[in-house]
Amino acid sequence: MAAAIVATAYARLAERLPETLATHFRADGRADGFSSAGGFLSVALGTLLVCGALFGILVLAPAAGRRTNAVRSGADGGRADGVRSADPRRATVRVTPPRSGLGGARAFITLGYGLAGLLGYAFAATLYANAATDGDSAAAGLPLWQLAVALGAGVVAAALGRLLAGKDTPLPDDGAGGDAPRLALAASEVAGWSRTVTSPLLYGLGAALLLAGLITGPAAGWSVTPGLFVGGLLVLALAGLRVTADRHGLTVTPPLLPYPRMRIPLARIREADSREIAALREFGGWGYRMRPGGSGFVLRSGEALSLRLASGKEFVVTVGDAATAAALLNTLVDRSGADGTGHARGPEGPAKGAGDPEGGA
Question: Which of 27, 46, 231, 352, CA to CA, is 20 to 30 A from 10?
Answer without folding.
Answer: 27
